[in-house]
């Protein structure tokens, strides 16, 4: 079973995987999309791959750049609850 990263952990992971500086404060806004943060689809794919590797996410997570990091955290929370 995987673990859900905290908003701060997700912000750090996004920053490491994409090279875009992201803070947990930015992730707190429920309307901020990955695109708003400057994350493109390839960057998002890297984030999702790293989440699988580092947090044990065992299923494909379907996200695109118009989704929000908060939506991603919610999906990951559902994954952990399984």
TrEMBL record:
<keyword id="KW-0596">Phosphopantetheine</keyword>
<dbReference type="InterPro" id="IPR006162">
    <property type="entry name" value="Ppantetheine_attach_site"/>
</dbReference>
<feature type="domain" description="Carrier">
    <location>
        <begin position="4"/>
        <end position="82"/>
    </location>
</feature>
<dbReference type="Pfam" id="PF00550">
    <property type="entry name" value="PP-binding"/>
</dbReference>
<dbReference type="InterPro" id="IPR036736">
    <property type="entry name" value="ACP-like_sf"/>
</dbReference>
<dbReference type="InterPro" id="IPR009081">
    <property type="entry name" value="PP-bd_ACP"/>
</dbReference>
<keyword id="KW-0597">Phosphoprotein</keyword>
<protein>
    <recommendedName>
        <fullName>Carrier domain-containing protein</fullName>
    </recommendedName>
</protein>
């Amino acid at each position: 079973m995987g673990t859900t990263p905290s908003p701060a952990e997700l912000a750090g992971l996004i920053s490491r995987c994409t090279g875009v500086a992201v803070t947990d404060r930015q992730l707190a806004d429920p309307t901020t999309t990955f695109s708003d943060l400057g994350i493109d689809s390839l960057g998002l794919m890297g984030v999702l791959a790293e989440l699988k590797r580092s947090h044990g996410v065992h299923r494909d997570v379907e996200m695109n750049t118009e989704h929000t990091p908060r939506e991603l955290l919610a999906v990951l929370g559902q994954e952990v609850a399984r």
